[in-house]
Amino acid sequence: MMSQSKCVVCGRKITYRFTLCRICEKEYGKRKADWPPWLVYLAQEQWKTRKRQQRNPDRELPFSDFSSDFIENISHIDDKDKDRFM
């Protein structure tokens, strides 16, 4: 597990278990019930990402592990669709 993380609002380094830095916490409060919807969403996404990293640290495959056939096939994909595969 990581020992540091980033504030979801401003990006400052914070302790891993927190969501907001001290400055943003003063502005938005400690209680999620008081936060605006966009901040609640960002906090939930951060939590999901952290949990996913804890549960599945070895499930992400590096691009170098794919065969050359696969790489050739995706090179023929339209530019508008490439972001779905890369």
As residue ranges, the low-confidence spans are none
Task: Output the structural class.
Answer: mainly alpha
- State the domain count: 1
**Given the structure, what is the number of helices?**
4
Overall body shape: elongated
Sheet with the most strands, sense and barrel status = 2 strands, antiparallel
Note the quaternary state here.
single chain
Q: What is the average of the pLDDT values?
A: 79
Radius of gyration, taken over Cα atoms and rounded to an integer in Å: 18 Å
Q: How do the SSEs run, as a string of H and E?
A: EEHHHH
**How many beta-strand segments?**
2
> Numbering strands along the chain, what is their spatial order in the largest sheet?
1-2
- Indicate the proportion of strand residues: 5-15%
**Helix share, percent:** 40-55%
Question: Distance N terminus to C terminus?
Answer: 26 Å
Overall description:
47% of the residues lie in helices and 7% in strands. It has 86 residues and is mostly helical. It has one domain (4-75). The chain has a two-stranded antiparallel ribbon with strand order 1-2. A hairpin with a 6-residue loop joins strand 1 and strand 2. The protein is elongated, with a radius of gyration of 18 Å. The model has no long low-confidence stretch (mean pLDDT 79).
SSE arrangement:
Blueprint: E1 4-6, E2 13-15, H1 22-28, H2 37-55, H3 68-74, H4 79-85
